[in-house]
Every structure is written in C-alpha cells, then in structure tokens.
Amino acid sequence: QGDSTDFDRAVKSVCPFCGVGCQVSLKVKDDKVIYVEGIDGPANEGRLCVKGRFGFDYIHHPHRLSVPLIRREGAEKGLNVDPGNWAEVFREATWDAALEAAAKGLGGLRDTHGGRSVAGFGSAKCTNEEAYLFQRLIREGFGHNNVDHCTRLCHASSVAALMENVGSAAVTATFNEIENADVAIVIGANPIENHPVAATYFKQFTKRGGKLIVMDPRGQSLARHATHMLQFKPGADVSMLNAIMHVIVEEGLFDTQYIHAMTENWDAMRAHLADFAPEKMQAICGIPADTLRAVAREFAGAKAGMIFWGMGVSQHIHGTDNSRCLISLALMCGQVGRPGTGLHPLRGQNNVQGASDAGLIPMFLPDYQSVADDTLRGNFSALWGGAEFSAEKGLTVTEILDAVHEGQIRGMYISGENPAMSDPDVVHAREALAKLDHLVVQDIFLTETANYADVILPAAAFYEKSGTVTNTNRQVQMGRPAVPPPGQAREDWAITIELARRLGLDWGFTHPSQVFAEMKQGMASLENITWERLEREGAVTYPSLTPDDPGQPIVFADAFPRAGGRAKFTPASVIAPDELPDADYPMVLTTGRQLEHWHTGAMTRRSKVLDAVEPEANCSLHPSTLRHLGVEAGGMVRLSTRRGSISVMARADRAVSPDMVFLPFAFVEAAANILTNPALDPYGKIPEFKFAAVRVDAVTDT
Ligand code: SF4
C-alpha cells in the first residue's frame, strides 16, 4: 500500500486508544511498527493526536508478556512483582499447562461451589468478537451473568439514562455532525485532552461561527473557543441544567410541535422545573442567573444544536440524573434526529461501545436485550446450542469485588482490565483480588492486577490482531494485524476459545469472521454489515439500511425505539454528592486523564515519546492554594481522603478552583484510586470518581 522505501509494508487499522476511532496506516519494517500515519477514516479524515501518532511503541516493549505463567507454589500475592523480572513469583509454562491450570481452577470452583462462584471482567480494548466470546463463556460456561467491563466505570449512567428515555444506548448522531450545527454544548468533557481529534472538529465549528458552550467545574483550553464557559461548582450539574430548562419553559422557548409528536411525560417535567428558577439555583451551582438565562436562550434558539458529554457527567452518584437532564434539554428543544442535532456521550475506550453492544454487561445480552426477558434469553440459548443461563441480572464491576470480600465469588477470569488500578477505593479492590481462590489474567503486560494472578495468559496487542471495533460514532471498523505477537502470545479470541474448550464448550470457531457471523444472528444492529464489507470498506456505521448503505450518521428522525415510538422526559432532583467536604477533608478531589496517558498507564507509560512528555505523577492545584500551603509549583503534597493518602508532585493550574484538586489516575506510584469514593449511582452502578472530600498538606519530610 505504501510507496516509500523506508518500510516493508503498510497496514490499515484503527488507533487502540480513545473512542474517536481514528484510522491509521502502520508502517512496518522487519516486523516492527516504525511509524504511524492517519488515513481517511470516517471519524478522523487523516488526523491523529499525539497518542495515535507516537504511542504505538509499547507493543515492542521488553515488558511484553510472551510466555504463559503460573504462580509459584507459596508465592505471596500483592504488588510485589517487577514486570521485567517475575521469575521469583511466576514460572514459565506451556500453553497446554497454563490453560489446563486456568480451566481446572475456574471449572473446579464451578463444580464445587456453583457457577456463581466465578465472575469475569472482559475488556473494551479487545475486539467486538472477543467481547462477544468472553460474555458467552461466562454465561454459557458458568450459567449466570456476572460479567462486566470498564463501561461500568465510565458511561454506565449515560447508558442507563439513554436506554430509559431514548430506548438506545448509542449516540443519536456522530460527532462530525457538529459541522451542521449552529450551537453545541460540551459538558463534563475535556475533548482537547481526551478526544483530541473530535476536538479539532469542535474548534473548526467555532471558526465558521458556531456557538460553543462549555460547562465544567474545571477550566480547559476548549473554553478559549467558547461563547460561554460555565465553570460550575463540582456536583451541581442537575441544579444548573434544571435552571437552564426552567428558563426554556418560563420563556416559552420549547418546541411544542416536537414535544407533542415525539415525547411523553412533558407535563410532569414542566411541573418539576417550576422549582428551579436560575435566581434560586445560582448560589447552588455557582453560575449567575443571567448567564443561565443567556445559555438557555442560545441553545433553545439554535436551528440545530448538539450536546456532548463525558465522564464529568457520568461519574457521579447522580450520573444518571445528569444524563436525564441533558436528554430532556435536547428533547424540549427538538434537537434530535435532524442534521446538526443530537445527543453524544463521548465514549472513552476504543471499543467500549462495541464491547457493550456485544453483551459484555451483566444486565444485557448482545444489542442490549434484557437477560430477564425469557424470549430474548431463549433466542441466545438456541443460538448457543441450548445453553442454559440465569434470568437474573449479574453483578457489576464493583459489586463483583464486594462479593469476593463476602466469599460469594471465589474465582475470576480478567481479560485486559486492570481493577487493581482502575477501581475506586483500590485498596479494597486489591484485597479482593488477593482473596480469590483462583485468578486468571489475560493481558499484554504483567499489570498491577496480574500481580494477584494464579495463571497469566499472554495476549496479542491490538496491532497484532484481526477483529472489528466500534467507535463513539457507531462506526464498526476493521482492525488488521500489522506485526506478529511476541513469543508465544496469542490473540484474545483464540485464548478464550481454548479456555472454553477445556471448560467443556466446543464452539468450533477458527477465525474471528466466524464469530462476527454468529453475532449477526443475534444482533439486529449489525444488519447489512458483513466481515467482507468491513474488509473492503474499512468502516460501516450502524444502522446500515441496505448492503450498500455506509450507515446512518443520524437516527430517530421519525420515532424512538421505545414502546409507542416516543422519547421520555424523566425529571431529576438535586442530590448532594455522597461525601461532602468538612473540617477534616475540606477540599474536593476529582480524577481524570491527561492527553499523553491512557487510563492505568500500562500502554502509554511504556511508550517512549508519551512517557518522556509526561513522566511523573502529578496533581493540579490553584496557585493560591499552593501559596496557602507554602508549596512551590513542582513541590510535593500529600492528598488524604477517608480511604487513604498519597504523595504527589503539585502543579500550579488556574483551571482548577482554589478548593479543588485534579489528579490523573495513570500513575501506580501515586494511585488516584487509593483516594476515590466507591459510592455508586443507583441506576448505572457507576462510582463517584469525580467527587471526594480531600485534605491537602505540604510534604515537609523529603
Ligand atoms: Fe487515537 Fe483518540 Fe487520538 Fe484518534 S483522537 S489518534 S483515536 S487517541
């Protein structure tokens, strides 16, 4: 494909980091990726950010797992393993021996304590086919639904609200539709850092006159392009959004025709909003009433408006309520289903949309079909050769680890997830992992979670495998192997199939295309999308209406996929964060990502360029807070919450307010989740990563 002589071949694939899903061309020489270029994918049109362009070399890092490992008899479980020197804790094994040990451990627990004693975490970094096989293994092999993945930690509350009120968990319009909008809201998201290529479209939109409204408790550089920046008080989203909707009702700015034709429960919504006058809410949310009124008029007056949101919205105990408000705001203004309109939760991981679609969640089978529905469950049972599994919703990520502490779950199969870093109150999570009778970890590195494993199965990285992924835009895209995996590492789908076989499930798949063909039998969303089309076209957006249709960027023009075809207004009341600041813990802690680092850092901290740009654990504090503490920018501070404390380098950052700390969660040496609050949103079961009461002290003993 390439015409240059500095590489042997060029392979088209998809960036393995964020949900934007940029298409890439991988330039390969001597079976090594030597550089990466953006190509003309539907989401990126040749653009890449720093992670996509420079963050590929982790796949060649010497820490890559290349042989199966089994824990040595008596070796203690804990964060005690050097990922480059594991020989004292683990011994090399053949694939046969490792798979036998994994199957014997998990199967033995099933046979002795019942299927419910084993749970699984799959991965949003694996392909659709791998996510599908993983959930099938837990459901068919263990007879229940205790299977989940990191969507529980990112957009589960958005999914809950979208399913409830719109009838579909995916975006109603691609982010590229912003080019047809005249007003857009970005709330609880920092796309320049977390969805950088999407942010380039947002900036272009403002250059051609589009009005951008940014709302976030933390300042950000996208605000430079905004007509309004609403830096509201942390946790005050619902009061602010209800106040904006109050104005739209009070001033009669809503779209009566749309509301009557396309929605239900308007009267209840209207009555509920009466209590939220901006003059009353301004003290709660910290935004002046005049600004709330101006923003309401701007959005309601738009010919075409879009709403984008991120984890600042979803990671609260009121995350579902936050999303309900955003859905209601769009519905009352008739801003769904037309060019330049829509609801778009910016999905985080490269395949979190696809993994959720594929059923890697405890309450839904593939395509969000309820496990509790006998007919739908029966369809999958028939597809899976008569497999029997429970009608009861399974446990979610944090509930599974709680169940380990309670002795109900004794074994786990974890593929590509790192709960020893990613879960809230991570000491509690690590204690759960240590307590397991049998833990099988399948990954590309010896992660913090693998430190607790009994068996480690070495997996292929994304650029080493075949399979499809689905981005935030509902675009199903083809990933292709550019280089072979190191040593004996294997593609995840192949490992799961072998483990399943040893647990008594002989599926007979020999290629992911066969898995995709089976998925199509149970997933209406994949209609008209075939493996061959994806190989040929690279990407197809679902829904695709005909075998030639590239897919529909905008959905729900005429009806919503709910009974009666109408979307619903669900009023949301103000709920305080779970843990409010007090005399002992007077400030607010919020956590998130940085441009250069991806999630728990397993990949990006092993990428030379990214690690060189952002090598050290850090937190951000307002300059006045640093002055008050007597700490210079670059000095060390101690952050303490009710769950633990860490020491970390402090940066001066005017984007955070003086009573707030921002802490990235990619650094194991200052693990943010030692501090975070595990309190859950009752609907999405997502933890409150975005709000914990914290104390900040100067470190004087260095
Ligand atoms: Fe990769 Fe996301 Fe950057 Fe695109 S925007 S190159 S998908 S990390």
From TrEMBL:
Superkingdom, taxonomy of origin: Bacteria
Keyword Metal-binding on entry: yes
Alphabetical keyword list: 4Fe-4S, Iron, Iron-sulfur, Metal-binding, Oxidoreductase, Repeat
Residue ranges annotated for the 4Fe-4S Mo/W bis-MGD-type domain, each copy included: 8-63
Gene Ontology CC terms, in alphabetical order: membrane; oxidoreductase complex
MF-aspect GO terms: 4 iron, 4 sulfur cluster binding; formate dehydrogenase (NAD+) activity; metal ion binding; molybdopterin cofactor binding; NADH dehydrogenase activity
One GO term (biological process): respiratory electron transport chain
Family: In the C-terminal section; belongs to the prokaryotic molybdopterin-containing oxidoreductase family.
Name recorded for this polypeptide: Formate dehydrogenase major subunit
